[in-house]
Specification:
This is LysR family transcriptional regulator. Belongs to the LysR transcriptional regulatory family. InterPro entries: LysR_HTH_N, LysR_subst-bd, WH-like_DNA-bd_sf, WH_DNA-bd_sf. Keywords: DNA-binding, Transcription, Transcription regulation. It comes from Parasedimentitalea maritima. By secondary structure, the chain is an alpha/beta fold. It contains 10 helices and 12 strands. It has helices spanning about 5-20, 20-30, 30-45, 65-85, 105-120, 130-140, 185-190, 200-210, 225-235, 285-300; strands at about 50, 60, 95-100, 125-130, 145-150, 160-165, 170, 190-195, 215-220, 240, 255-260, 270-275. A 5-stranded mixed sheet has the order 4-3-5-12-6. It has a 5-stranded mixed sheet with strand order 9-8-10-7-11, with helices on both faces. Strand 3, helix 5 and strand 4 form a beta-alpha-beta unit. The protein starts with 5 loop residues before the first helix and ends with a helix.
Length: about 300
């Protein structure tokens, strides 16, 4: 026997459409307390939240909620077609994937390829953002899944580690560090450095130095990876980067040497980020499973 009725699906789809209980209750011709109680019972039955509730703010769909609301809307449209076969069908809810901007040139294309193979015919949207906008979009459920470094994320997000990256020191070929097989943070603290302008990235790197009682000399903060590489190639300070594009030239054609940083604690995980457990068989569940399986293999082969 089915627990949820079409009316329950109307409740979820209505709140998803109107963005709040008051407007949805009015459109659905039900009292707001009754609608709130029904939503709570639906979520209890499903075993996961459909909406994020914040005092004084509109309800926000979780990724599971977006998927459920889209399927609920599809079910309602199919029911309506039984009564009126002439009604035009509507397209499925797209899946939105986010990627940290420095990782996007390396990971966005294989991620899209994996998602399209796992979800043929399903619309896949994407965005590449710096840390703060990416985390904000995840918190607002504007993004279903994301790939980033494990920085600035609270405990509400699920993380699946894909790999760990070793940072590299980027120097000119005549720099003393270029002749070394590896370099330590203690050695780097003796030279002027160029770090990313990203707040979370800078905080992370500075915390690594601070943990060893070191005070690095920051010469520049670069707004992009290629600017960081260019500054390093022109002798403006040793660049430190986790992303390592192939090739030994900066954008302006200057030679560049990358020396791995050997401190074990400097290795940083790349994680696949999601909201809670995805229902098996749902588009989000299929996407999470496919990416968790395929991306580690792709990263290991690079």
């Amino acid at each position: 026997m089915l627990y949820l009725t079409l009316r329950h699906y109307e409740y979820v789809a209505g709140v998803a459409q109107h963005g709040g209980l008051t407007a949805a209750a009015e459109a659905l011709h039900v009292s707001q307390p009754a609608l709130s109680t029904a939503l709570a019972r639906i979520e209890e039955h499903l075993g996961h939240a459909l909406f994020l509730r914040r005092r004084g703010a509109a309800l926000i769909l979780t990724p599971q909620g977006r998927d459920f609301a889209a399927r609920a809307q599809t079910l309602l449209e199919q029911a309506a077609l039984l009564e009126n076969p002439r009604l035009p069908p509507k397209s499925a809810q797209p899946l939105c994937f986010g990627c940290f901007s420095d990782l996007a040139p390396f990971l966005l294309a294989p991620t899209l390829r994996t998602l399209r193979a796992a979800l043929p015919g399903h619309r896949i949207d994407f965005r590449a953002d710096p840390f703060d906008p990416l985390i904000s979009a995840l918190g607002k459920s504007e993004i279903d899944l994301a790939i980033s470094y494990d920085l600035g994320l609270d405990a509400s997000f699920n993380r699946t580690e894909l790999c760990r990256l070793t940072p590299h020191a980027l120097v000119t070929p005549d720099h003393p560090v270029s002749a070394q097989a590896s370099v330590t943070l203690a050695e780097l603290a003796q030279f002027p450095l160029t770090l990313s302008h990203e707040g979370l990235s800078v905080q992370h790197m500075l915390s690594l130095f601070k943990a060893q009682g070191l005070m690095p000399k920051i010469a520049h903060r670069a707004a992009s990876l290629e600017l960081l590489r260019s500054l390093a190639a022109n002798g403006e300070g040793i660049g430190i980067s986790y992303s390592l594009p192939p090739g030994s030239l900066s954008y302006d054609g200057k030679p560049l040497k990358a020396t791995p940083i050997s401190d074990p604690q400097a290795r940083e995980p790349i994680v696949l980020i999601s909201h809670g457990q995805m229902p098996k068989g749902s588009p989000l569940g299929v996407a999470l499973s496919a990416l968790s399986k395929e991306l580690p293999k792709y990263l290991a082969s690079r």
